[in-house]
Amino acid sequence: MEDRDLIFETVSLAGEILLASGAEISRVSDTMERIARAYGNPGLDTFILSNGVLLSTGGGSRSYRARVRHIPLGGGRLDRIDAVNQLSREIELGLHTPAEAHERLEAIRTMPSKPRWQQVLASGIGSGSFGYLFGGTGQDAAAAFLCGLVLYLYFLYLVRGHLSKIAMNISGGALVTLCALILTHLGLGSNLEMVTAGAVVPLLPGVAFTNGIRDIADEDYISGSVRLLDAVLVVACLALGVGAVMAAYTAWGV
Predict the structure, then answer these.
(1) Residue 47 forms beta bridges with which residues?
(2) Where do transmembrane segments lie in this chain (predicted)?
(3) What is the pLDDT of residue 156?
(4) What is the rounded average pLDDT for all residues in the chain?
(5) What integer is the mean pLDDT of 107-133?
(6) Burial class for 120, CB neighbours closer than 10 Å (0-12, 13-18, 19+)
(7) Among the listed ranges 30-34, 59-63, 180-184, 197-201, which one has the minimum average pLDDT value?
(8) From CA 171, how far away is CA 155, in angstroms rounded?
(9) Taking a C-beta distance cutoff of 8 angstroms, is the pair 189, 136 a contact?
(10) Of residues 1, 21, 28, the one with CA closest to residue 102
């Protein structure tokens, strides 16, 4: 592969990894342009949306080359974003050839996520902590901790890859509410609202919501609106799941 083609592939791959990992649009575009300039290809043009990357280069005596990649909206992977950012800084310092940079990016793209047991434990700790911060007692925090564990066990081992995003969030909201009801009736936790509020926190799209606002602030209105809409949809699905269980609980007068 010629160096020019390899540079093009490297820049494209960096943008795809960042966008798939939940980076804001301005970061994706700036990183791609920095890498291109560092390798002597400042004429590269980028067009980034929340779910797609368009990259083109050429002109004059050089033939044009373009690439369009669809990147589905996904969860945040801050470890990959940090790794690509660090690599881009090293490229600007002249520490990597295009071939070396491309190899590093391939390794970053295949970086494994945290072990499942760590994700489950983090969900439990987050739920318990927020249950306490929201005003719950120690018992409420313990109940929220158990609900958070159950939630991620459900996500990681039962429904991932089998349900749509909407169905996952509705069922997840319903599950943590049902779990909170059971635990409070068993005496572990006395404040149902605090237990439920803490347990649902791992499902809230905080990174997507923040990046949506940042994209709009950077005048990337289309991408920001898409991300905000996605975040609002997730919250609405959670509310629907929680509300359905609460409504049934109230109607049955348990």
Answers:
(1) 54
(2) 141-159, 166-188, 228-252
(3) 85
(4) 85
(5) 88
(6) buried
(7) 59-63
(8) 10
(9) yes
(10) 1
